[in-house]
Structures are given as C-alpha cells and as structure tokens.
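Researcher: Last one for today. Full complex below.
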Amino acid sequence: MSNVIDGLYYSESHEYVKVEGNFGFIGITDYAQHELGNVVYVDMPEVDDEVTAGEEFGAVESVKAASDLLSPVSGTVVEVNEALEDEPGLINKDAFENWIIKVELSDMSELDSLMDAAAYKAMIGE
Amino acid sequence: MTEEIKVTCLHDRHVAQGALMSPFAGYDMPIQYVDITTEHNAVRNKVGVFDVSHMGEVEITGPDAAKFTNYIFTNDINAIKAGQILYGMMLYPDGGTVDDLLVYRVDDNDYFLVINAANIDKDVAWIMEQAKDFDVKVDHQSALYGQIAVQGPDAEKTMGAVLNIDTTDLTFYTFKKLEYDGKTIIVSRTGYTGEDGFEVYADPAIICKMWDMLMEAGVQPCGLGCRDTLRFEAGLPLYGDELTPEISPIAATFGMFVKLDKEGGFIGRDACAQQKAEGTPKKLVGLELEGKAIPRHGYDVLDGDKVVGYITTGYHSITLDKSVAFALVDRAVGALGNTLNVQIRKKVFPATVVKKRFYTPNYKK
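Model: Here's the assembly. Have a good evening.
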C-alpha cells in the first residue's frame, strides 16, 4: 500500500508537486519509488534551467533501469536537492520528504490539469 | 505474431515466492526476489541460487563427434580430457558469433553443449545443418533438463550440506555425472558470476526438489537482474550485447578462446585470422566514468564530440561502487588510459578506457 498525501498535485507519470506560494517542490511518488526499487542515481537539472510541463527534466535510476522524470509544471529551477547526489536512496526512505527539484512556477493554471490525491489513488488502484 | 511464453520447471515456485517476473529469451523468468543489490551481494559474500533451466542442452555423439564439435567450436576440445569443460563460441564463416557456449567432454565420442536460451532454435538448426557431412548424432535435450546454479564462496559447503553432493573433487571447469534419486545428473564447477560455484543439470523433478531444499536451508534465491550485474563485473560477455552476429570474438577481445592453429580448423577460422592480423574496425573496451551517472546499453560513446561507438552493457557496479561499462568503439580510440565521453541523456561524462574485468573472479582452480 503506497502512501499518497492530500494537498499535493499528481501527474500520470507519477511525479508530484507540492506547492508553496509561487514555488513547487517536484519529486516522484511513493508508489513510483516502490515500483522502481532501490534508487542508485538521480539525474537532476541545474539551477536556472527551464522545465516545461510534460517534458523530461532528468531521470531516476535503479540498478537495472533509468526512468525519465517528466515535469508536471513549467517554470525555472531555483534549487535542486543536493542530498540526493550523495544519497539517492533517500527517495526510497521517504519520496515525499525528499523532493528532487524546486521550481518557480510560470503558470499556476497548469496545476488544474494535474490530479489530486483522491484521483491519483484511484489511478494506482488504491 | 506473438509466440507463447515458455516457463521453466521452477516457474510456480518463483511466482509463489513473489519474484518480479519478466520475459527473457522467450521464458517468463525471475528478475529479482528481494532486490538486485541484496542478491548480488549474497553471491559475492556468501551463496545464492539461480534458476537457469532456460539454458539449452545439445549432445553430440558418434564416431565423428570430436572432429565435428571442434569444427563448429572456436576453442580446442583436444586440449581437454573427459570430465573437463571448455568455453568458446560457434561462428559464422565471416567470424560473426552464432552463440557462446560451454562444451563438456563426456568421453572421446560424446560432447555436451550448453547454449543460450535465446539462441536454442537458431543453434540447433545451425548445428544440424553443419552436421550433414559428419557421422554424428545431434540430440537436442533442452526438454530433459532443469538447471540450477549455486554460486558464491559458500557454494561448495552448500552443495555438500544441503544437497548432499560432494564437490570437493571438482576443480574449476570440470564436471561429473552421478546418480541422484535413481537418475543421472551432471554437476560442474562452472558459473556466470565471477565467484566459485556449481551448475547442476538434472531431471526437472530433481531440480525442483533441490530448489526446495536450498530454500529450506535459507539460501538466497537470485534472479536474472543480479546474474547480469555479476557477470558484467567479472568481465564476462552476454550474447546479444557483447557477442552478436556482427561482433566476432576477436572484436570483443575474447581471442583467447579462439584457437586459430588447432588441427582441422573451424567455421569462421579464416575470418578470425584475418581480423587478428589486420585488427577489427571496432573493439570492445572497458570504460570507467567519472561521477555516478549510469551508462546504459545503446548510449553513444564520443571522442571529443564525434560518435565513436556505443555502450554494450553498463552499470553502477554494486561491488566497486563505480559507474563502469563495456563499449564497442573504434579501435583507434580504444587504447587503455584513453579518455572518451559518454552521452547520458543531455549530459556528457568523461570516461577512461580500462580493462574489462572490473572485478577479479574468485575461482577455485
């Protein structure tokens, strides 16, 4: 049973956005980390990079495979979670606590096209 | 057209044990039971067991068995005695690889070939075709055997204590036949992990019983996920990645298993001799990357910004905690110590050409 947190926005490709003011913290869901297995590397963009809703901004990798990260929203990267460089497995410990990038959102209306917790739960069948 | 997926004799057990299953070489196979790292480390440090029943078996017997087997095989079976095993390849006339395989010398007129699951149909057809002019019987026996691999430093102890099979008389790449539950089984000191270990070929019912005994004793079941990380670290090729119809053993730098001067020659011999003399356009090298980014199969390898090859297998090595890869690159840039680049998504990472054997195997010679 995967953890799904109320109040976050969810994408079909299993990323979440936690919104604080104009900023969004983007990571992968607990369901996604579980499906992926032990995360051994996180490929992150750099600060000031632009991300676009629905487009790739990096990857999370298990021993076996790389999974692209798709940004749920558009904006500018203002921070990356540097702790993941040394300890990518933090994502397995707590995927919601250990977000991957912090983005300044350029279009708040994009959030409307994402799922809420209830809809995401339904999608993953829980 | 989709072919029906095949299963091994242990399939029900894998499913019941909750293994992550995935199609491999036409078989529904366990990829992992717990996770790849745990299973990998069990084999490096202790012992683990693999279901390798998907591997194919072909027995060649008859008056011409030695001559014929040597004719389709790159290594020299005259260099071994009954009870010994050789690794080598079957080649096309142009030197491309049909398959890599083990040949067990049962006796002078009896050879037991172990081939890759993905190539069974192709190999059997190939062997039959070549056998026309020889007085041999080619017997495809894959259906007769289940197979397990018990691998790791504790493998010998496990074989004795759990399966009641004394293997202390077997050295690396030797085998014996013995009676087990009234049937003849084959036990060899071989594997695909870079550790000491054994492979057992037996009637599927015996393989199932052995699996249950090993599980009862707490031996770690291991999936194909760590089979690949283990063989890769030990510098062992996987057919389809490092050896293909386009990649000869000379290009893959496994020339030590190609005996150009053996009596009677072999299919692909002249092409290999020419490749060895002239150098293949591409060669397989080891790469060590700076940083933790992981080079995956198919990623481009660059010299400066020019594409000079591709990754055949790559991982963040579990044992070494480094990102390393095999890559097929232009011979001119393949010298040890040379610096190349690997394209990983949008970024480029420097990589040094190193020896392909990232981990020194612990075989019992």
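Chain B has three domains: 11-53+145-233, 56-142, 281-354. The mean pLDDT of chain B is 97.
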